[in-house]
From TrEMBL, chains A, B:
A GO biological-process term: negative regulation of DNA-templated transcription
InterPro entries in UniProt: Bact_HTH_transcr_reg, Chorismate_lyase_/UTRA_dom_sf, Tscrpt_reg_HTH_GntR, UTRA, WH-like_DNA-bd_sf, WH_DNA-bd_sf
Keyword presence, Transcription: yes
Residues annotated as domain HTH gntR-type: 11-78
Molecular function (Gene Ontology), one example: DNA binding
Protein name per the record: DNA-binding GntR family transcriptional regulator
Segments forming a coiled coil: none
Lineage: Bacteria, Bacillati, Actinomycetota, Actinomycetes, Kitasatosporales
Provenance organism: Streptomyces murinus
Any matching Pfam family: UTRA
């Protein structure tokens, strides 16, 4: 399209600065290095602080920069590939699952979750909280909603609470024959509690992966997982994922 | 975790406002409705304009609000599920492909693309530009990089340029036996040209889906697709995708 369309829309100033900054990151800075403060950067590039901040936000979205409380803005390492969907269907908690059970509560879920589970509005479900590490860092948190009907053999006595309870719920779930699963990925913003665990500010961009597990012709479990969008690249399919660094500035067409 | 952790981190003001605004959207506004201007909203909620803007940005990230040039801020319809990966492997341009070929050029790709394709740094590749519609709207643009070695039977005479050339390249590609494909999804920011096509501002958050197609033991094609993050939910797997609206505010734990 670039060859036929008129380039009539002027490039915003922050976008131009973003490109210049991106090149400076490549040539002058190394991974982990702390950037000069905003005032110095704005002076160096001859722009207003607001323009600088917009450009820094772009580069953060693209995973080039990280802003950390108490540290400042640093040059980010390449994103880590985190395997999300394989070809194989498997229950949460099955062998090889990358998630660790943290807690389990019985609760009335949010209306949207109840609708997806096709449970009644006042029907409590087991909500397992899990977390996922990669490279020594917490990269995702998950709420896994399991209707009581999916774990009919579960007794209160098995394990009353906490991670042990979560594992008991998952063991029960594995008695069902998993028929299929589907997933959706979308952009979200981190809830306050997820943000705290993921070491982000509330509202930081996150990738929300919703997975529905079906058994006996109905939804047997619903997982809502929140991945750090700054450090994670979600991979699907045969191998460990595509190793390409997405740089919007580079393009030869 | 919410039951055991100390809530010692204070909720930022914009995050609280985001929750209040979210509730107001549910109760007072309907899809497509234009919000009052920023000054009026800030006055109504008794906050500074900067705080209001941060809260609006949150809601935009979550797909609740849309900001459109010349229109203002409107209440967004639910995101559209766009199928990205099925269980079946298929070449780009195979039957049922949702993408439309737009253009094709032969060019030296960016260094990262050349590395992923394992072509030499100065080796030109065919770059097919495609676009994807959903519900009458352009939801994604794609650059599909195909090394000359993947389409050895292609002649310059087949179709010299444009969409016809793109289709000729894809037809040639189909002569190879597709062995596998893997995908990665990550957060990106829209390049100026993609932004223009997608009717977004440069730097708007986008979901970047990179797909590597393998044949004869090597990378035969590399697709980099840019989806609107505000209106799209990418779906994977068996069915048309999970119909859950992600609302970070609602949670009963």
């Amino acid at each position: 399209m670039g060859t036929t369309q008129l380039d009539s829309v002027q490039e915003p100033k922050y976008w131009h600065l973003r490109t210049v900054l991106s090149e400076a990151l490549d040539s002058e800075f190394s991974v982990g290095e702390i950037l000069p403060n905003e005032r110095d950067l704005a002076a160096r590039f001859g722009v207003a602080r607001a323009t600088l901040r917009q450009a820094l936000e772009q580069l953060e979205l693209e995973g080039r920069l990280q802003r950390r409380r108490g540290v400042g803005t640093t040059v980010a390492p390449p994103r880590v590939g985190v395997a999300v969907g394989g070809e194989q269907h498997a229950w949460p908690g099955a062998a090889g699952d990358a998630w660790q059970a943290v807690d389990c509560v019985q609760e009335i879920p949010a209306a949207a979750v109840a609708a997806a589970l096709e449970t009644g509005a006042d029907e409590p479900v087991h909500t397992v909280r899990r977390s996922r590490m990669s490279g020594g860092q917490l990269v995702a948190t998950e709420l896994l909603h399991i209707p009581a009907a999916s774990v009919p053999g579960l007794t209160a006595i098995d394990a009353p609470s906490g991670a042990a309870r979560a594992r008991a719920v998952l063991r029960e779930l594995h008695h069902l024959d998993l028929e299929g699963q589907d997933r959706a990925v979308e952009l979200g913003s981190a809830r306050a509690d997820d943000a705290r665990e993921l070491d982000r500010l509330p509202g930081s961009p996150v990738l929300v992966v919703t997975t529905r597990f079906t058994a006996q012709g109905r939804t047997a479990a619903l997982s809502v997982a929140t991945y750090r969008a700054d450090t994670c690249r979600l991979t699907f399919g045969d191998s460990a994922g595509v190793e390409i660094h997405h740089d919007p500035a580079q393009r030869a067409s």
